[in-house]
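## retry 2 of 3
previous attempt timed out at serialization; input unchanged, resubmitting
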Amino acid sequence: MRILAFLFFIFPTVIFAQTSVPLDWFHLCPVEDEYRGLNTAGAYELLEGRTSQTVIVAVLDSGIDIEHEDLQENIWVNPGEIADTGRDDDENGYTDDINGWNFIGGPEGDVIYDNLEITRLYRHFKEQYGHLDPLKLTRRNRMKYSEYLTYKRVYYEKREEAQANYEQMKEFRDRLVFVMDKAMMALEDKPLSEENLRNIETDGNMDLEFGISVLLSLLEDYEPTDFDEFRVEIIESLDGGVNHYKTSYKYHYNVDFDPRHIVGDNYDDPRERYYGNNNVGGTFSRHGTHVAGIIGAVRGNDIGMDGVADNVLIMPVRTVPNGDERDKDVANAIRYAVDNGASIINMSFGKGYSWDKGVVDEAVRYAERNDVLLVHAAGNSAQNNDLNDNFPNPVYDRRRLFGPKAARNWIEVGALSYGDPPAKVASFSNFGKETVDVFAPGNFIYSTVPNNEYEDLQGTSMAAPMVSGLAAIIRSYFPELSAREVREIILESAIREDSEVFRPGTRDLVAFSELSTTGGYVNAYEAVKLAIEKTK
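## retry succeeded, writing output
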């Protein structure tokens, strides 16, 4: 049963494609439709007759398919740049940034895979301290050496785990295909059905029994009309699992792999700003395209799905590789977005270690001074962020004299599921009474992916753009409100429910109010209603 559960985990799009959950559940009304969606339609009913102005939302992510049929109309175009001139027409430091910028690319190409931050830290400290005799170090260097040993221990633990997972997944993939084929051969020419599978005489053959049990489990949620297509779909999903663990071992936890030379910047200079290229899409843009669709897929065009915001332009800023984002790139991406007119920045990424939090803090302060709202995903480790590091975050490393200790233009978002209590919170979502502000739909969210396609994905990465889209509505129809005021409205209007839920990652029951600062989940109707009241 544990193996079967793992099977369900590695290809959820196969299993849950047949669920009865509406594709647009995140837009629905908690009262009328009994799904804890945003009640987007209700919000727009309140806004009827009001004028709106276009709002730019920067999506700092893996890239966006800017030619997607449901996004193309809402992609930001730099008004000061002329396409393909090879010049920096608007003199903002970025040549031909027609639709945005890519901080993880260079003249010769783009970074697709990168290390996790723990690997980069270990490599850096190894070069600095790995050759030193700990008995001959000064007190300051002993502290640094101790830090190096910590990074070394964590790195090798994770690398060994990644290697073991990769090897086990390869073995698991081959065995699963073998037993499923064995069960299908035993069916002979009979159709694939529960009745026919249960009527197979196994004569104690364990491989055959296992294959039958796998197919029976899959048939509970999936009714294939063609076994060959069914088999191909499963193998593709299994291969995806193998590649996931291969990527982790080959790139994420590999101290000998460092792709930064592709970018061509001086990585030791955290305040260097002008590097990268103008390729805002690319082969790794599935995640960013999905996030962009949640915020701003064209509404009412009878194509695909509707985004949350109706008068919005999406500014792609490629920042996140397949691996951990780099603090230098995050800081520059924030500054680029601010300088080029974004009033909201969506950040659906995060990590457990930080290379240079100070340079990100400076960019966050810059965004606050320029009245830009930052929306960040809380993470998918089912961890308490009050007790565990999660970067970037709004708490400044160094508090300035008389200044705030944390950013006041920041919303941290956890993921809500479509289920009723106690399964109201997504099982993977991070949480925190002091560090996570609010929850938003993030479980099985249907949105845009590259090549004019659509998929269900899940994560706090999907919850954050729900809030960014809602913020875009408010800033569009109530432009007099500041970023801080928009933040206050979204949090104040969150729906509080006195219910017990499973603490993410466990079956322990806790009060929903204990998982975030508001104890609630966002609702567009309530937020718009409050915005109307505050601006009368």
